[in-house]
Amino acid sequence: MRRDLQLNNVGRRYGIHGPWILRGVNLELAPHTLTRIEGPNGTGKSTLLRLLAGIDTPTEGKVTGRPRTAYVPERFPQALPFTAEAYLTHLGTVHGLSRAAAPRAASEWLDRFGAGAYARTPMTRLSKGSSQKVAVAQALLAEPELLVLDEAWTGLDEDARAELERAVAERTAAGGTVVFVDHDPRRLAGVSDATYTVTDGTLNLRTDKPTSPSGPQVSLDVQGPPGGQLPAEASQFLTSSTEPTPGTHRLTVPASHSDVLLRALLTAHPPWHVVSLNQRDDLPLDDESPR
């Protein structure tokens, strides 16, 4: 059984006498969770993500419970001697996919991010946006247990940004752990299970009320079996849940997470029945929250 990833009194500095970038960091990351890391530039956010991803090792303290991890760095190297498809196929086999499964996964993720047309383009000839799509795809194609995203949305077009949000929802719903940094405070606003702030080399849990989700919301009226409880994967990302009539639940979720919600409801045993679905940019949010 997979253990939680834990950082115990972790510190990091570069060089024996260098200044401490981080110190005294304690953090526990469980499956099925989404964690946001925020803070001013230069405070150590990227260093923390590199420690979580196993790219860096602590100068002091311990990291335990290391899961199978994928990482999207803030700056992705483009000068690689591969085509986009060959690079993803190679990494797929490195991450444990079979020789048959790796190229299929590479093709599927390039298509999902709208980069299928560049599959056979050398990495050195890709635009920054297309290169970023490859960077995100390489982290997702082997279904990691821990996904670490450092400004991963930067450079993506609108459709690809929405697709990455859907992929994040899929990973956490499937039992994965996702940790991310993004300069846009609206990114996955109100969806994270926890938000931490890095300030002066220390990590602190934000305890104030999270920002309400922004952007399009989807509202569904659903009916389940008598006395049935919503599947855990369905309730994980809800903005609100009410019962307007006995036996009917009105569920509100960010549009980027609606596919995961629908899949969880329709594949439950027995499945839930979707009565209606409505998407609006100005959908009012109820005060009652499943969290």
TrEMBL record:
<feature type="region of interest" description="Disordered">
    <location>
        <begin position="203"/>
        <end position="233"/>
    </location>
</feature>
<dbReference type="InterPro" id="IPR051782">
    <property type="entry name" value="ABC_Transporter_VariousFunc"/>
</dbReference>
<feature type="domain" description="ABC transporter">
    <location>
        <begin position="5"/>
        <end position="225"/>
    </location>
</feature>
<protein>
    <submittedName>
        <fullName>ATP-binding cassette domain-containing protein</fullName>
    </submittedName>
</protein>
<dbReference type="InterPro" id="IPR003593">
    <property type="entry name" value="AAA+_ATPase"/>
</dbReference>
<dbReference type="InterPro" id="IPR003439">
    <property type="entry name" value="ABC_transporter-like_ATP-bd"/>
</dbReference>
<feature type="compositionally biased region" description="Polar residues">
    <location>
        <begin position="203"/>
        <end position="217"/>
    </location>
</feature>
<keyword id="KW-0547">Nucleotide-binding</keyword>
<dbReference type="InterPro" id="IPR027417">
    <property type="entry name" value="P-loop_NTPase"/>
</dbReference>
<dbReference type="Pfam" id="PF00005">
    <property type="entry name" value="ABC_tran"/>
</dbReference>
<dbReference type="GO" id="GO:0005524">
    <property type="term" value="F:ATP binding"/>
</dbReference>
<keyword id="KW-0813">Transport</keyword>
<keyword id="KW-0067">ATP-binding</keyword>
